[in-house]
Design brief:
Elements: E1 3-6, E2 11-14, E3 29-31, E4 53-61, E5 70-75, E6 78-79, E7 81-86, E8 89-95, E9 101-104, E10 112-120, E11 139-140, E12 144-149, E13 153-154, E14 164-171, E15 174-181, E16 183-184, E17 190-197, E18 203-209, E19 213-218, E20 224-225, E21 229-230, E22 233-241, E23 244-253, E24 258-261, E25 265-268, E26 271-272, E27 276-280, H1 293-306, E28 310-313, H2 320-329, E29 332-336, H3 348-362, E30 368-375, H4 385-401, E31 406-412, E32 427-431, H5 444-454, E33 460-464, H6 484-499, E34 507-509, E35 515-516, E36 528-529, H7 543-552, E37 558-560, E38 567-568, E39 572-579, E40 583-588, E41 591-597, E42 602-608, E43 612-619, E44 622-630, H8 665-668, H9 672-688, H10 701-707, H11 712-718, H12 728-738
Parallel strand pairs: 27-28, 27-34, 28-29, 29-30, 30-31, 31-32, 32-33, 38-44
Antiparallel strand pairs: 1-12, 2-3, 2-4, 4-10, 5-9, 5-12, 6-11, 7-8, 7-10, 13-16, 14-15, 15-19, 17-18, 17-22, 20-21, 22-23, 24-25, 25-26, 35-36, 37-39, 39-42, 40-41, 40-43, 43-44
Length: 744
Amino acid sequence: MRQIVNINRKWAFTKRASSVPAELPLDWDFVNLPHSWNAIDGQDGDSDFYRGTCYYVKKLLKSDLPEADKYYLEIRGANSSADVYLNGKVLAHHDGGYSTWRVDITNHLHVENLIAIAVDNASNDKVYPQFADFTFYGGLYRDVNIICVNNSHFELMYHGGPGVKITPVVNGKNAEVEIETWVSNLKAGQQIKYVIKDAEGNAVCEKITNDTKVDFVIEDVNLWHGRKNPYLYTAELQLVEGEKVLDCISSRFGCRSYVIDPENGFILNGEEYPLRGVSRHQDRWGFGNALLPEHHEEDIDLIMEVGATTIRLAHYQHDQYFYDLCDEKGLVIWAEIPYISKHMPTARENTISQMTELVVQNYNHPSIVVWGLSNEITMQGDSDPDLLENHNILNDLVHELDKTRKTVIAAVSMCDIESPYIQIPDCVSYNHYFGWYGGDTSMNGPWFDNFHKRFPEIPIGCSEYGCEALNWHTSDPQQGDYTEEYQAYYHEELIKQLFSRKYMWATHVWNMFDFGADSRNEGGENGQNHKGLVTFDRKYKKDSFYAYKAWLSDEKFVHLCGKRYVDRVEEVTKVTVYSNLPEVELFANGKSLGKKAAADHFFYFDVPNVGETELVAVAGEFSDSSVIRKVDEFNNSYRLVEKGAVLNWFDIDAPEGYYSLNDKLSDIMACPEGAAFVKGLAAQMMKGIGNTEMGEDAFGGAMMQMMGSFTVLRLASLMGAANVKFSKEDLLGLNAMLNKIKKP
């Protein structure tokens, strides 16, 4: 019988070695897995986290393992490339930091053994991702096991998969279920016993045969119906020889049908089922990617609380445990590979291998409905024939591996809707940040209307939208101020625009949680992207979290916004309340300020601001409270202070009648000299990210419409996320150039 031995404990670890040691190095650090060496330096900014080869070494006695014919080392996540050594001999190499892979170590085991795994997250041009707005945490950050099996066993080396492929097809009240498996060293006289059990553990179908592909019919099938009824069956397979069980595996699955309709959106089991949800990165403050089961559980609970029906699991394969939780909770999933931002002609094979592993390892999860081919891959242009060919290969590969699901891309905002790239997958989503990265919030809905009008046959969705918020506050929120109030306003507007467009097959907020992005130095807390509805440590739900809960959740509640914004200077201040109940009454120091109804779930009150006021919002039997306080001067602890900023706006010379770094791109473009300056700056920035195709035209047309509201200083700051750095001297030099250009 199969036995799985976890070997997470007590690995010697170092960044300092250059080769595999001959014996256990007692002077190295000792760590338990899961582990990442970038759990701290990958979250503190300046894009200086350690990228290179590190070594993990463990002593293993064969006597500590169960007796078996075959032994396989299973690595569930090593970012991003790794080599496995046993007793000094290299046995395997793997490229791709987010999937499971296994190594047959049977013939190399001694009485005493030294396992060494060299893990490398250094920059290269062969393995994705290499260029993206998140930290590429190095490490053995998921479980490492040894699987002990009989000579005859269910296959363990088929792309790291579970050894069984389950394909249910709903047909009326029944489901036709095909189960395919792979057996290593299947011998005469050996058979496979297949059993399908319902959620209560009762057998509903069974068969004993030597066939590795069988068909069943589940009568009066219980459908997996998202959050409403995430019903799961279990397929159990035993490899038997007479009365002896040689090996066994099992996998849960769900029976459901779905359609992604370009006019009516997502349809699950014949019922319209709007996909409105969030994206998720897997990392966490102080842990990097080295998450524990309780971290995954907390994440899923928060996503369930906000009321989401879908998650985009960005930008790579996530932990199997999290996919299992999505199956159990009924969340509809977009799964993708890290083919992101920058196409590398030398890395085609890696896109193919990572896509194959993603599909094979996750095929049985009913929660998954689309496979993502790439994210923002046309950032440096969409005309590269190799890029287009790569996508056609991946699209065909997915349809060959999985004939039941659809393919999708997440297109960068500036990608032309007429691009041939847009025509490759089955459905399309766009990453749009109108209202944050330039443009205006009102541009979002009309943009999608235009796409839908031009391509009514293509299902269109929004794969990313959001804006950053930290513990900064204002009564006059403005784009780019990083306040919690602007983020709340932004999401109120986007909810109303996106959720009212039925044809949008899915919408995914970027992001559910703040996450590590070590190249970012902005917002006053370096090393993070702060677009989350919840903070990186999961301790604080921002006000925008409750805006979504008001629209999506059936759990009745009321929430008073602005709890961290106590000191206010105005005589009358605006107070916002979110609730999914039809009416809210607000009390100030016990006195009612009236009741309000709001079909959009957003309730606004004008509150007299005198002394200290306790506010209580009441909706039905639910209430929430906060405090505001009248002050004469604005509390500067609420104002953004950039840590380590190269240059602050108030340090910039801005002579009257002339331009400076504090002026908007659109204003500077208003005169010929200013337009020439902006084109030169665009060429410099595009060269910095390796884009020679766009050059000085980077800020033309639709791009200028979107980014024209940026000041030059803010644009330069944001380019840090793309590893385009401007020193203080660089910026002062640009400012001196602008100071010579007279405003019209």
